[in-house]
Amino acid sequence: MAVDLKTDSAPGKSLSGERETFKPLAVVARPRRNLESRRDLFATGVVVVVLLIAMEITSRYVPDYIMPSPVAVWNAARELFFSDPYHVAVTLVRLAVSVSVAMFVGVLLGLIMGMLPAVRPYLKAIVVIDTGIPALSWMLIAVFWFKNPETRIFFILLVILLPFYALNIYEGVRALPKDFVDMIESFRPSRWQVLRYLILPHIVPYIFLTTKSVIGYAIRMVIFAELVASAVGIGARMNLAQSTFRIDQVLAWTFFLVILNLVLQALVNGVEKLALRWRAEATVR
């Protein structure tokens, strides 16, 4: 619907005679998004400083094996990161491979459930049953089923992360506007054309949303899986630190994983902005 912006005043001027500047919504919204990002960064910094102060105060009143000082944790972190880069690399590779495969298989299952009603109930039942099985059960099953530690960890992460992608993509396909479906059907497209020009562009935001949602969970699961089923990786090193009563190393690894989660979240957000830069963002007053 077109809106008539004509007035009795001169073009480009308001009723009071002052010149007005009209800017697109995206240009107006960009400073607001930047302000929100700076506020989030500032809030994160404040929380980190408060936690460090609380650790320092607590360390003065309890033994070191309960709460070490931030300086002790920093020294342990420097020792670990320079002496154990191999374990960090192994954990990162496991995480990247597992999330990538879970994303591919989960998106494929979600598309099949959304586009093929004949097999939808069976696939959906399998995925829903998978979501009800505890992570610990999958870990113990993997220990019995597989001898290779890499296969164990990959299997554990795959069966845990896959339902997130499958169900979210399925809901994304169901959320397609009926008007869009009717419009593209009027051109008598093939199934591949419907998938390429309608469904895939529509589910891209759901893929990014799911990835951002599962990153932190995937990091926790890969550490847990390494602790149970492997002798290599950050989880295995944390298990060693626990057995030798090195809580400073446990906290150092914990802080590293928190930073890793923040970095990965920022990376996914950056890729999402590039991939969806064509999409206008709505701002609610």
Write structural notes for this entry.
- By secondary structure, the chain is mainly α.
- It has 10 helices and no strands.
- It has a domain at 91-275: MetI-like (MetI-like fold).
- Helix 6 (149-174) runs antiparallel to helix 8 and helix 8 packs antiparallel against helix 10.
- Mean pLDDT is 81; it is low at 1-28.
Question: In terms of topology, how is this protein built?
Answer:
Layout: H1 25-59, H2 70-83, H3 85-115, H4 120-131, H5 135-145, H6 149-174, H7 178-185, H8 191-229, H9 234-243, H10 247-275
Helix pairs in contact: 2-10, 3-4, 3-6, 3-8, 4-6, 5-6, 5-8, 6-8, 8-9, 8-10, 9-10
CATH top-level class of the domain at 91-275 = Mainly Alpha
Shape: globular
The CATH topology of the domain at 91-275 is what? MetI-like fold
Percent in strands: under 5%
Gap from first CA to last CA: 22 Å
Summarize the structure.
This protein is 75% helix and 0% strand. Residues 1-28 have low confidence and may be disordered. The chain has a domain at 91-275: MetI-like fold, CATH 1.10.3720.
Characteristics of this structure?
285 residues; mainly alpha; MetI-like fold; disordered N terminus
